[in-house]
Amino acid sequence: MDRLSYVGRRLLQMVPVALGVTILVFFMVHLIPGDPARTMLGARATDQAVAQLRHEWGLDRPLMEQYWLFMKRLAQGDLGDSLFYDTPVLSLIFERVWPTVWLLAYATVLALLISVPLATLAATRKDGSVDQLVRAIPLFGLGMPPFWIGIVLILLLGLRVPLFPVGGYGDYFLGHLYSMFLPGLTVALFLTPILIRSLRASLLTVLESDYITTARSKGIPEWQVLLRHAVRNAIISTVTVLGVNIAFLIGGTLVVEKVFALPGIGALMVDSIFNRDFPVVQGVTLVFAVLVVLVYLITDVVHSLLDPRVRYER
Amino acid sequence: MSAVETTAPAAGAERARGFRNRWYRTPSFVAGLAIIGTLVVLGLLAPTIAPYNPIEQDLKSILKPPSQEHWLGTDQVGRDVLSRLIYAIRVDLKIGLLAVLFPFCIGTFLGCLAGYYGRGLDTVVMRLVDVVVAFPFLVLIIALVFVIGPGPRGIYIAITMVGWVSYARIVRGEILVAKRQEYVLAAQAAGFSDARIIARHILPNVITQAVVFAMSDIVLVIVAIVTLGYLGLGVQPPTADWGSMMAQGQDFITTRWEISTIPGLAVVLTGLGLSLIGDGLADLLRPE
Asked: How much is the ipTM here?
């Protein structure tokens, strides 16, 4: 199977998932206890306003028709209007997408800078004291709430030793780099335990495979074995591990943006929860899911580019 | 590994015996058990050992630093931080445990059906899994709790709706291997009902992976619960919960840093204990 048809097939497989995602997001409205329109508008809303919202959302129509309406709007890029800001949800999301993208990218880079060397150290010295130490990181790290890591970093690197700003997005590239260091590090530290665990495991598999043993038996120095033989396969596993954990990464950014007052979509969602702004929460949830599905697809494609076996196997 | 585990119907019994003989010689398991055991005892004895009522306000002594009377000081309305920390063990551990139990049962059940019967049922369950997996765990849970309403009920429903997928996937995968084994074919030939074959013959052999996963899952679930508490969507005030304690303490971080950081340490300690138990279980339940 060539690469193009593989990508095509993966795209086709995404259709039912995308459809399912829209159904779940659509049904969120119906999970609201009682009258959704009244709950959304609050207890003080007039009957007329409630009736109007119910009509706008199509809540007064049969379920199938409601879903059809929802999909028709979605196809036009209409995620509804924010109840709090009174603007279209999609434009709100677009306005605030960059800090989130920045944070995701920054955190990924930092997480890789931390976990790749540690995982390599651990895997190359299996069961040694370094390995034991590195293996302890996930034990402690998995239970760290992302916002708590943020609070601790603010305390240590923002207040006690004021090296970095504790909030804001900064201007231009270097400004972002500087201002977003603490939030980036926070999300990176949240992701690191998971990355280290999976990377160490996959590196061990690579290092124990036959071609590495062959390379070693030929007398090639260990660093060359690592760099020239193990790296390509290690990159494959890193890409996969990162791709698989994108959902986890996004979950981490959500609250961290709020802690560091970053104007991203995660903070938008948290603010909208406080404002009981249902359309925004619904819209952001949908956008995040679409993002995850896209990243899964990209991961698979990149994986197939790096590892030719994938195309033949499937 | 799973292929070896499921070759004999007696594997489950054998594992149970191995577990009984070896658990106390597995350091990570013992250490984890000690940590969680201590937390559980502290939580159970909270009314006796907590020095103060966790919700009683004392507006004359607000934001007091640690002292002889208040070991960890008091919060912004004069409540004893240590007492709240101890009482929160009850709340967070209980919700965490229940919030894993429901998805564990539902996911295992659906995974059994999908794996054993295959075909249309399998397709439906696995497509559902694909859909739920497309959402970031924390995002979907936060959105669902927001929609359903804050508090334990919302948390249970939301985490169950999201969490079952992992168990369904694991159990389905294991059953796909197990159902081709001779002991299952023999049970089918003997004319046993499907329910009996699944419950008595297959499940004891395939549940191990799900149990081990549950241990790491509960850590993530507790982090999620604490995050919900931090966002005001968790257990509602004045009940003590680690998440809300951290949120309230954050406003006073410059003067009283311990109010917001120490509850986080409690979460990390809980996570450490559960992860150690999980690692130990994985070792113990692996066939010798």
From this structure: 0.89
